[in-house]
């Protein structure tokens, strides 16, 4: 998969009201360990057992699997594609060893509702980041001030979990999560506990904190509205 460059018109952050207020007033980014998302089996929005996977291989794309234990008495053994219940997942520690911050990206006008109701599982409130370039500039500056050695941010790509074989990593997720339109910020070194990155007040580049249940009544990013706002895509 090649990375597709897209314009980000605005970013949305969903969550509980007190957390969204802290994001707006203090610029608090509560960045969870990537590996934590594999453990949230009961959380249909956040939990994903594929998180932290480096590469997946569809068994149907392989003629035969040969496993070499490298140990005396165990040796090698083979397995047929039909022996596997799903794709083979390969996860390297360096892939999962990071902390992440996730947002919803608006990259194009949308006919109908902008946000899928599945996103209501993230909390009761939301806020718009109206100037993504300035927001990301502040993220980079705050990361430098905090002594963070590595930071990467970009849109998540989505793949067909039944057909795709190849690299997955930190910025690819199964298409079942495509409704999240995720934009992800990743920092290293990774921590087993959440990292807090403080940007300072974001009042000048964000909307008020608004009820998430009303998001599709509040926001209109239809092609007509985008044209009237002078936006191109």
Structure explained in plain terms:
- The chain contains 5 helices and 15 strands.
- The mean pLDDT is 87.
- A hairpin with a 7-residue loop joins strand 4 and strand 5.
- The chain is of the alpha+beta class.
How far apart lie the N and C ends?
22 Å
- Helix-strand category: alpha+beta
Helical content (DSSP H or I, runs of 4+): 10-25%
- Total helix count? 5
Strand segment count? 15
Q: What is the overall shape? A: globular
- Rg on CA atoms, Å: 20 Å
* Strand content bin: 25-35%
Largest sheet: 8 strands, antiparallel
Which residue ranges are poorly predicted, with pLDDT under 50 across at least 5 consecutive positions? none
| Overall residue-averaged pLDDT value | 87
Sketch the topology as an H/E string, one letter per element: EHEEEEEHEEHEEEEEEEHH
Fill in the keyword field for this structure.
alpha+beta, 3-stranded antiparallel sheet, 15 strands, 8-stranded antiparallel sheet, globular
Reconstruct the topology from this structure.
Blueprint (H helix, E strand, L loop, with lengths): L9 E6 L1 H10 L1 E6 L21 E3 L7 E4 L7 E4 L8 E3 L2 H4 L2 E8 L18 E5 L2 H14 L4 E6 L1 E3 L6 E2 L4 E3 L7 E7 L6 E4 L11 E2 L3 H4 L4 H6 L5
Parallel strand pairs: 10-12
Antiparallel strand pairs: 1-7, 1-8, 2-7, 2-14, 3-6, 3-11, 4-5, 7-13, 8-15, 9-13
């Amino acid at each position: 998969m090649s990375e597709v460059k897209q314009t980000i018109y605005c970013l949305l952050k969903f969550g509980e009201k007190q957390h969204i207020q802290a994001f707006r007033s203090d610029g608090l980014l509560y960045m969870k360990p990537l590996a934590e998302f594999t453990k949230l089996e009961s959380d249909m929005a956040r939990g994903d057992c594929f998180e932290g996977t480096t590469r997946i291989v569809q068994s149907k794309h392989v003629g035969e699997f040969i496993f070499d234990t490298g140990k005396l008495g165990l040796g090698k053994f083979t397995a047929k594609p039909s022996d596997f219940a799903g794709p083979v997942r390969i996860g390297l520690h360096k892939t999962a060893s990071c902390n992440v911050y996730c947002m919803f990206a608006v990259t194009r006008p949308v006919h109908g509702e902008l946000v899928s109701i599945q996103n209501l599982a993230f909390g009761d409130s939301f806020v718009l980041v109206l100037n993504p370039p300035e927001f990301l500039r502040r993220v980079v500056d705050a990361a430098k001030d905090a002594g963070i050695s590595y930071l990467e941010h970009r849109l998540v790509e989505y793949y067909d979990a039944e057909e795709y074989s190849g690299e997955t990593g930190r910025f690819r997720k199964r298409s079942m999560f495509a409704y999240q339109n995720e934009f992800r910020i990743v920092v290293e070194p990774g921590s087993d506990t959440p990292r807090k990155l403080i940007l300072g007040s974001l009042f000048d580049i964000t909307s008020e904190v608004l009820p998430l249940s009303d998001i599709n009544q509040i926001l209109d990013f239809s092609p007509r509205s985008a044209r009237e706002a002078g936006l191109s895509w």
